[in-house]
Amino acid sequence: MELFEKTGKIALGSRLRYMASNVTDEAARLHELYQIDFAPKWFPVFFVLSEGDCKTITDIANEIGHSQPSVTKIVKEMINAGLVEDNLRSQDKRRNMVGLTKQGKALWERMRIQCIDIDHAIDGIIQEATHNLWEALAEWEFLLEQKSLLKRVQEQKKIRESKDVRVVPYQAEYRQAFKSLNEEWISTYFEMEETDHKALDNPEEYILAKGGKILVALYNNEPLGVCSLIKMDHPEFDYELAKMAVSPKAQGKSVGTILGRAIIEEAKTLGASKLYLESNTILKPAINLYHKLGFQKITGYPSPYQRCNIQMELDLRNS
Amino acid sequence: MELFEKTGKIALGSRLRYMASNVTDEAARLHELYQIDFAPKWFPVFFVLSEGDCKTITDIANEIGHSQPSVTKIVKEMINAGLVEDNLRSQDKRRNMVGLTKQGKALWERMRIQCIDIDHAIDGIIQEATHNLWEALAEWEFLLEQKSLLKRVQEQKKIRESKDVRVVPYQAEYRQAFKSLNEEWISTYFEMEETDHKALDNPEEYILAKGGKILVALYNNEPLGVCSLIKMDHPEFDYELAKMAVSPKAQGKSVGTILGRAIIEEAKTLGASKLYLESNTILKPAINLYHKLGFQKITGYPSPYQRCNIQMELDLRNS
DNA sequence: AGTAATTATATAACCAGTTATGCAAATTTA
DNA sequence: TAAATTTGCATAACTGGTTATATAATTACT
C-alpha cells in the first residue's frame, strides 16, 4: 500500500490491520491446500485445547486474549464440526468444561505437520527480509505494555507545546491576567486575604516599585501563567517567590516548570543569593514543582498568610 | 501475549490482529486527548481528501485499499459530522464527488499537528526497539506480493513430503502398480500398443530377465511412481529409460525427479555409459523432467512405438 | 436509434470480533 | 443461615469491515 508511505506512521494501525487480513486470508486458503475443513479463527482455541486437558470457556478466553463471548461462539462452531465436546466433568455447574473429541485430537496431529510447513515458510520470509517482523511484534508488545502509545504521544505533545511557551516581563496589559489567574486557585482552595488583594490589585506599586519582578508565560500570545519575585527585607532571603499561578487550560505544557526556571534565572541576574517561598501541602503539584526546581523545606519563619503551612528556600549560590 | 511464543509463527495473523486492535484502541483515545471529535476509521478517507481536490467514492476506495461500500459508509458519517460534502461538480450523474468542507479543512490543519506528535512517538519506539516494525511491515508487503504465503507454504510442503518418498527395487507385490500406473497415462493420451502389453503384463520376463531394472517410489508405503531401465542391444546406448509413470495423487511431492535421479544412479552402478528414451511432446511435464535430469534431444532412431515423436539421450560419462 | 454491456453507487446481508446484560450457581458476609 | 456479592456463561446488540446484489447512468455496439 503506497498510501502508508504518504500518511506516515499515524497509519500504523491501518497497516497492521491490512497485513493481518492478508495473512488471515491466505491462512484460510492454506487449510484448503491441506484439505482440512477448518476455519482459521478456530486456531487459537484449538491450540490451547490441544495442550491436553479440558478447560473452561473463560480460561480459554484469557489464554488466547479474546472475549468470553467470542470463545463461546467458536466453541459452538467447533462442536458442530465434531472437533470439541462440552459439559465435561465439573461439579461446579456454572462452568462449561470443553475438550477435544477423538476426531479433534486426530485433526491436531495432521495440523501439526501443517504448522511446521508454515513455520518454515515464515522463517524463509524472515531470512529474506532485513527487518524481522515476528521479533518486532514481540518487542512492540513489550514496549507498549511498558508505556502505552497514548502516554508516549502525550509526552511528545508536551514537548512540542512547551516549545511554544514564551516568558515575558510584566506589562500593564497583563494586570487582569495576573489577578484572575491567582484569584482562581486561591479562592478554589482557600479564602482571599487582605495581603492578596493588595498585591493583585496593584502589582506595580506593591511588587515592582519595591524592586520585585513579575514574569508572564504566553501560549499563543495568551497569558496562561504568572509568577513574581517580591523583594524581602530579611537578613537571609533576598526575594520571595510568590503569586505563582498557571491556568488549568495550560496543563500538560510544562508552563509551571518553564516559568519557575525563568524566575530563578531572573533572581540570579538581580544578584539574589537565596529565595524563599510559602505554600500549602494541599497544593501537591505546586510543592512537587518547587521541589523539582530545587527548593528545600525549611521551618520557623513568620508568615502573613493563614493558608501557609510549608516554607521552602532555594540557595542560588550552589548552582 | 504469551500464547504466540507457544504456537509458533502460524499465529502470525492473530498476532498482527492483536497488535492492530491495540494500536487502534489507543488511537481512539488519542483523539480525545486532542479534543477532536473524530473516529479513527475516518482517517484514511480524511487523509486522501486532504490532499486537495474532491474524489469519487470508488477512487477513494482504491486509494485506501478498502471496499467501495466501506467508503460509502464512512463518507456518510463524515457528512453528518460536517467534515465532508458530496455530490460536488460532475457531469456524470453516477459519480458522487466528495470533498472536505471548510470545517473539514480546518480540522485537517489541527490534525496535522497531532500526526507529527504521533510520528515522533512511534519513531521513539522504533529507536528503543532493535527490530523496526514499520520497515518490517513495508518489507513484508513487498515480499508477499512477490510470492504469496500460500505459494511459500506449498513449497515447504513439497520439500517435506519429498523427504518421505522412498525408492525401492521392484518386487512381485508391485506388479499391479507397475501396470496400472502406466496404463493410466498411456490410455489417457494414446492407445495401448502390443509392446506395452508385453512389458506391463510380465515385467519379470520382458525387463528384469533381460538385464533391466525397475524402481518403485513409495509414499507412506503406497507405490505412487514407477520407472524402468530396459537393456538395449545397440552399439551406442546401454539402456532405455521407459515405463516411467507417476500417480496424479503424488503431485507436488517431486516423485518424478526423485525416481529419475534414482534410476540414473542405478544405470551408473550397472556400468552404463549412455541412456536412451522416447516420448511425445504432448507430455510436457515429462519432457521437462527429462530435460531437468540432463537428457538431450536427438534424432533418427527407429522406434517400435507409434506415439513416439521425440527421442533423447543422456551421456553418463560426463558426470 | 435501440439494445447490450459497463460503471458507480447504494443497500442488504454477512463475518469476526466486541461490549452490555441477564440469569443461574457458587461463594462470601453479616 | 439468609442475604449480598461474585463468578461463569449465553445471548443480544453493536462495530468496522466484507461480499453480493440491485439500480441508475453512461458507453459501446449493431
From TrEMBL, chains A, B:
The keyword Endoplasmic reticulum does not apply. Residues 165-317 form the N-acetyltransferase domain. Residues 1-155 form the HTH marR-type domain. Pfam families: Acetyltransf_1, MarR_2. GO terms for molecular function: DNA binding; DNA-binding transcription factor activity; N-acetyltransferase activity. Gene3D superfamilies: 3.40.630.30, Winged helix-like DNA-binding domain superfamily/Winged helix DNA-binding domain (1.10.10.10). InterPro entries: Acyl_CoA_acyltransferase, ArsR-like_HTH, GNAT_dom, HTH_MarR-typ, NAT_camello-type, Tscrpt_reg_MarR-type_CS, WH-like_DNA-bd_sf, WH_DNA-bd_sf. The keyword Ribosomal protein does not apply. Keywords: DNA-binding, Transcription, Transcription regulation, Transferase. SMART domains: HTH_MARR. It comes from the Bacteria. PANTHER family: GNAT FAMILY N-ACETYLTRANSFERASE, LD18367P. This is MarR family transcriptional regulator.
